[in-house]
Design brief:
Pathway: Purine metabolism; IMP biosynthesis via salvage pathway; IMP from AMP: step 1/1. InterPro entries: A/AMP_deam_AS, AMPD, Metal_Hydrolase. Belongs to the metallo-dependent hydrolases superfamily. Adenosine and AMP deaminases family. By secondary structure, the chain is mainly α. It has one domain.
Length: about 130
């Protein structure tokens, strides 16, 4: 998402769902949209990160998780992603802490929460409720 672009066009920053999605553990990332129109610096992506950190009071770990998500979502080849976030990110869903600065406990929490959500969906679709 590009909250700065959204803010300029139709959705004020405070109502943007990005933070809610991130807090719920969705794999979201910041991006730019028409940088010449919506950004004021030569580094539009850094501008998105800086504003998000200020508005939503993100910690350095939050920012690192967003950057990690960007790598995961990117169109880079798997080998490039392995270089930047960890050799087994595809197989295990776990990245290397020394590369991403995202603590293992956070990754495990995200994974556990996702598994619980899958269980609820599975129960609901199989008539478990």
């Amino acid at each position: 998402m590009s909250p700065l672009s959204n803010n300029a066009l139709f959705l004020v920053y405070e109502r943007n769902p990005f933070n809610t999605y991130f807090q719920r553990g969705l794999n979201v990332a910041l991006s730019t949209d028409d940088p010449l129109q919506f950004h004021f610096t030569k580094e539009p992506l850094m501008e998105e990160y800086s504003v998000a950190a200020q508005i939503w009071k993100y910690s350095s770990v939050d920012m690192c998780e967003l950057a990690m998500n960007s790598v995961i979502q990117s169109g880079f080849e798997a080998e490039v992603k392995r270089h930047w976030i960890g050799r087994e990110y595809l197989e295990t869903g776990q990245t290397e802490v020394h590369k991403t600065n995202v603590p293992l406990c956070r990754l495990k929490y995200r994974s556990s929460t996702l598994e619980q959500e899958y269980e609820v969906i599975n129960q609901m679709t199989n008539g478990g409720y």
